[in-house]
Design a protein that fits this description.
By secondary structure, the chain is mainly beta. The chain has two helices and five strands, in the order ββαββαβ.
Length: about 80
């Protein structure tokens, strides 16, 4: 087995809990990151970061550097 890391992510798989659907949407910006405030300025995405997407704000639930994909849950 091998691990696929991610260096740059343009899209996120976002779950909308109201409609129970998953959509692939474009990531616009990083809004907040509890790991380090400098990550917001540098647009670094890790688990727990709040990102702004085309359909709204979402919290990242995956580990993009380890998994190779950005999975998130929509905040509403």
């Amino acid at each position: 087995s091998y691990k696929t890391g991610m260096l740059a992510g343009e899209y996120a798989n976002v779950v909308d809990k109201k409609t129970n659907t998953v959509k692939k949407v474009k990531i616009l910006n990083v809004i907040a990151n509890s790991a380090d405030p400098n990550y917001v300025q540098r647009n670094i995405i890790n688990k727990g970061a709040t990102i702004k997407t085309e359909i709204g704000d979402a919290i990242v639930t995956s580990r993009p550097g380890q998994v190779g994909a950005v999975n998130a849950v929509l905040l509403n």
